[in-house]
């Protein structure tokens, strides 16, 4: 939020310089991002009056003006501004003045006519970044001869504060003044706001159908306004210094009150309203043209302001174009409402919007503020655009409004947290200055939280406030006590750092993606996945918690492919979220993705694309780190994101631990990917398990090897044959290696040849042929009976 230092000091003015004030605010938890002067440096510019104007004799677009600047004589100036006129009060740069950019004013002749000075525009004084269309016209009561910097209060600073989401109460000059007053033990004095007496008794009907989303709604009909009136320069300047551009007097007043008090307001053109104003949820198919000109289809669950005919505004976000105030407006309906943060949260972002109103309502606006803001805005409107106010109509559901909150702060807990015992009177004073009603009790203080402090709900919140206002730098410095005993090292587990190093050694880069993903991306990859949906997401494409690492890796792949990176190797570790909030499971996973050529570009590398078995080999290198590769299995299965013929379920000790496969062609087409990618995902708790390595003495006796080639059905997995070998080959089998799979000439159709190399070795003697032949016969017979396998001749 941006605010004017001068404006703040009208409410509360501590004896601090600008930087010291900013430092104090920052140390109180409201970080100051920037301090900037409200205008560039210039001097020699005074208020002057244009007393005469005549056309330039030799130039159609120039005028010769006579100005009075209280110097004792009229000064002749040549001016090219189209809006210059007699009787205007203007900023006048005398000869010798220095304007922003070190531009010095000198006597000059323009088309043969002498000019002594310059009538300035707002941009020439550094008040606007873009070039102004005409000169800056000052109010009629501006005193001739006064320095313009002093008259406009330009020796001021704009201070930008970066507020955390819990401090929505400081999104106004009033809120910041409250904070500064507390820090400096000073009273806060804002403008007197008195109820405006109605001139007529006409009201406009209001109906609230969604009291949960809008527990309080106030409205007032003001008749006979003059929207052609000009917004006062002092208000335009305060809006500018708050980062808001002046538009028209009605909109400017609502924006001004929002900056001043923190309550967003909206004004409707009474002539465009039909029937009654209704606060309700959107109905199917309703559309709205917003004030910025874009037309949106309103989505389910959106809280809107409507009349009996059509939507008028998205509640708490932005008004509609057709119901807004325009040049023909004569009567306005002024709205001041309290919208629940949950009803507004995320609505602006879902339509690609971020407005000052939504920014405040999402963080919480004081529910007791709406009436005060409506009265303040009414008074300002009557002062600027005139009109006749009617009575203020209120529709409220008291039971739905935020209730009173009472918090107990225990003396013992406060002393423990601060490591310092503060005097009881000081603690009570700090809480009272913050607006809390405090009663001393036996073991501490009982505090009632004011309506504007949404962030104070538990004891720890009050402890933080006491520490913050007392001063963090005044708390004692203690070195924390720490137990320095060595932690036991679980030798059977594989550290996560080792898994990461292994993936890097295999040529992968570690990716770190959001735990939130786009719902349509997750739906495309995991149509049956259930994970929490965020009520207030960062953006609409990061609105659901990920149920898998696949969406984040796919998005990272798209990002790289869009930047001409054709060979991509990524891995990621992190939590995935499965189930609804009530029964949420958070599962740590490791995922990997590979795409593009198998080898990096080079004279010795081919251009073959990476495939399923490349990634399987990389994954098996991870599995082997645990020292029990035989506990892991891959079995054919189907996964909605993976190719049905190139997909396997990963099992650890017989239980599902993950998936590996090639991205499904239909999914790839839906995501707009033009290349194949292989992916895997495995539970980290399974990956880190293993067994402690143990030494086995090397046998001094020779190995015995037998190569067996089996004919099996081509849909029979090779693992089934290996399982049979391990079951029947006896305890002296030291290796079973698959070294060939063949289909073609000499092999019947529908069958394949699988060749295995089997190696036996006894630790204490030489194995004889009879023993080996007996084991081979057992393997062949078991394979024939259970797998339909035959030895290949």
UniProtKB/TrEMBL annotation:
EC code(s) of this entry: 6.1.1.20
Cofactor note: Binds 2 magnesium ions per tetramer.
Catalytic activity: tRNA(Phe) + L-phenylalanine + ATP = L-phenylalanyl-tRNA(Phe) + AMP + diphosphate + H(+)
Keyword tRNA-binding: yes
Predominant place of localization: cytoplasm
Ranges of residues in domain TRNA-binding: 39-149
Record-level Gene Ontology MF annotations: ATP binding; magnesium ion binding; phenylalanine-tRNA ligase activity; tRNA binding
Keywords: Aminoacyl-tRNA synthetase, ATP-binding, Cytoplasm, Ligase, Magnesium, Metal-binding, Nucleotide-binding, Protein biosynthesis, RNA-binding, tRNA-binding
Enzyme kind, highest EC tier: ligase
Domain FDX-ACB span(s) in chain numbering: 699-792
GO cellular component labels: phenylalanine-tRNA ligase complex
Residues given in the record as Mg(2+) binding sites: 455, 461, 464-465
Cofactors required: Mg(2+)
CDD domains recorded: PheRS_beta_core, tRNA_bind_bactPheRS
SUPFAM superfamilies: Anticodon-binding domain of PheRS, Class II aaRS and biotin synthetases, Nucleic acid-binding proteins, PheT/TilS domain, Putative DNA-binding domain
Gene Ontology biological process terms from the UniProt entry: phenylalanyl-tRNA aminoacylation
PANTHER family, sorted: PHENYLALANINE--TRNA LIGASE BETA SUBUNIT (PTHR10947:SF0), PHENYLALANYL-TRNA SYNTHETASE BETA CHAIN AND LEUCINE-RICH REPEAT-CONTAINING PROTEIN 47 (PTHR10947)
Protein family: Belongs to the phenylalanyl-tRNA synthetase beta subunit family. Type 1 subfamily.
Subunit-level organization: Tetramer of two alpha and two beta subunits.
Protein name per Swiss-Prot or TrEMBL: Phenylalanine--tRNA ligase beta subunit
The species this protein was found in: Halomonas beimenensis
Lineage, opening ranks: Bacteria, Pseudomonadati, Pseudomonadota, Gammaproteobacteria, Oceanospirillales
Gene responsible for this protein: pheT
């Amino acid at each position: 939020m941006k605010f004017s230092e001068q404006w703040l000091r009208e409410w509360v003015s501590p004896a601090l310089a600008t930087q010291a004030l900013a430092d104090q605010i920052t140390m109180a938890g409201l970080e100051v991002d920037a301090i900037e002067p409200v205008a560039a440096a210039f001097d020699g510019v005074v208020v002057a009056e244009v007393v005469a104007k005549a056309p330039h004799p030799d130039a159609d677009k120039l005028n010769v003006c006579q100005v009075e600047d209280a110097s004792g004589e009229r000064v002749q100036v040549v001016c090219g501004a189209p809006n210059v006129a007699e009787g205007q009060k203007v900023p006048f740069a005398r000869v010798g003045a220095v304007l922003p950019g070190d531009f010095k004013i000198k006597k000059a002749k323009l088309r043969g006519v002498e000019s002594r000075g310059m009538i300035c525009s707002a941009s020439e004084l550094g008040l606007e970044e873009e070039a102004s269309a005409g000169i800056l016209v000052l109010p009629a009561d501006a005193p001739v001869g006064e320095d313009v910097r002093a008259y406009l209060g330009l020796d001021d600073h704009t201070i930008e504060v970066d507020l955390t989401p819990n401090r929505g109460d400081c999104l106004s000059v009033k809120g910041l003044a409250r904070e500064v007053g507390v820090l400096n033990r000073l009273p806060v004095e804002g403008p007197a706001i008195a109820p405006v007496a109605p001139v007529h008794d006409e009201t406009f009907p209001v109906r609230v159908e969604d009291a949960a989303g809008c527990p309080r709604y106030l409205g007032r009909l003001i008749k006979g306004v003059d929207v052609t009136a000009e917004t006062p320069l002092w208000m335009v300047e305060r809006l500018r210094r708050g980062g808001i551009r002046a538009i028209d007097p009605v909109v400017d007043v609502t924006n001004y009150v929002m900056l001043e008090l923190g309550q967003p307001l909206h004004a409707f053109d009474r002539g465009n309203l039909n029937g009654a104003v209704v606060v309700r949820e959107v109905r199917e198919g309703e559309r709205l043209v917003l004030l910025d000109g874009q037309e949106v289809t309103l989505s389910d669950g959106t809280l809107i302001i409507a009349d009996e005919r059509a939507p008028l505004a998205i509640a708490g976000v932005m008004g509609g174009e057709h119901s807004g105030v325009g040049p023909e407006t004569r009567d306005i309906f002024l709205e001041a409402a309290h919208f629940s943060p949950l009803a507004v949260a995320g609505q602006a972002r879902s339509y690609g919007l971020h407005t000052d109103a939504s920014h405040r309502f999402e963080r919480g606006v004081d529910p007791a503020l709406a009436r005060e803001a409506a009265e303040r805005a009414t008074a300002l409107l009557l002062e600027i655009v005139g009109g006749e106010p009617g009575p203020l109509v209120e529709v409220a559901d008291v039971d739905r409004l935020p209730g009173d909150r009472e918090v107990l702060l225990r003396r013992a807990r406060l002393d423990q947290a601060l490591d310092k015992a503060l005097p009881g009177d000081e603690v009570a004073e700090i809480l009272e200055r913050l607006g809390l009603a405090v009663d001393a009790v036996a073991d501490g203080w009982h505090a009632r939280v004011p309506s504007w402090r949404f962030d104070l709900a538990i004891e720890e919140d009050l402890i933080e406030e006491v520490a913050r206002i007392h001063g963090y730098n005044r708390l004692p410095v203690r070195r924390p006590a720490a137990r320095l005993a060595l932690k036991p090292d679980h030798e059977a587990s594989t550290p996560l750092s080792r898994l990461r190093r292994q993936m890097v050694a295999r040529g992968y880069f570690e990716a770190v993606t959001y735990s939130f993903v786009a719902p349509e991306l997750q739906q495309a990859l995991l149509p049956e996945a259930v994970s929490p949906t965020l009520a207030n997401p960062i953006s609409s494409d990061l609105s659901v918690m990920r149920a898998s690492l696949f969406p984040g890796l796919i998005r990272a792949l798209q990002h790289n492919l869009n930047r001409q990176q054709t060979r991509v190797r990524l891995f990621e570790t992190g939590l995935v979220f499965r189930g609804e909030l009530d029964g949420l499971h958070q599962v740590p996973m490791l995922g990997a993705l590979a795409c593009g050529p198998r080898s990096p570009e080079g004279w010795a590398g081919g251009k073959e694309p990476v495939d399923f078995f490349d990634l399987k080999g990389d994954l098996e290198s991870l599995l082997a780190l645990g020292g029990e590769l035989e506990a892991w299995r891959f079995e054919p299965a189907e996964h909605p994101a993976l190719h049905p013929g190139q997909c396997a379920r990963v099992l650890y000790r017989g239980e599902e631990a993950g998936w590996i496969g090639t991205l499904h062609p239909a999914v790839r087409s839906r995501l707009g990917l033009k290349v194949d990618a292989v992916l895997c995902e495995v539970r980290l708790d399974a990956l880190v398990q293993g067994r402690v390595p143990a030494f086995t003495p090397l046998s001094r006796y020779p190995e015995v090897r037998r190569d067996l080639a089996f004919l099996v059905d081509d849909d029979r997995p090779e693992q089934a044959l290996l399982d049979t070998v391990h079951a029947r080959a006896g305890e002296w089998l030291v290796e079973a290696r698959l070294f060939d799979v063949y289909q073609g000439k000499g092999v019947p159709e529908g069958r394949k040849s699988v060749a295995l190399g089997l190696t036996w070795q006894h630790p204490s003697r030489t194995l004889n042929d009879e023993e080996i032949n007996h084991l081979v016969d057992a393997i062949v017979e078991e394979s024939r009976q259970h797998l339909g396998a035959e030895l290949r001749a």
